[in-house]
Amino acid sequence: MTYRQVCTVNNNQIIVTLPPNFSNKKQVSIIVDDEVDNKTQKLDFLKEASTDALFLADIKEIQQDFDSIDF
What we know:
Shape: elongated
Structural class: mainly alpha
Helix content: 40-55%
Low-confidence stretches: none
Number of helices: 2
């Protein structure tokens, strides 16, 4: 059986509470994946970009380039 849970890291440690189906298990395999943090970080960068003057100027310039060929 596979059980997936996102855990908060506290002092470089995690605590995982297993569901009742695992009560008789002697061993489980743990895989640590930091993709959640990467995704959060990327979303934070996108939020910052929405107010970044240089980024917005680049977008406006690209939009003007395409405006001339859209018609």
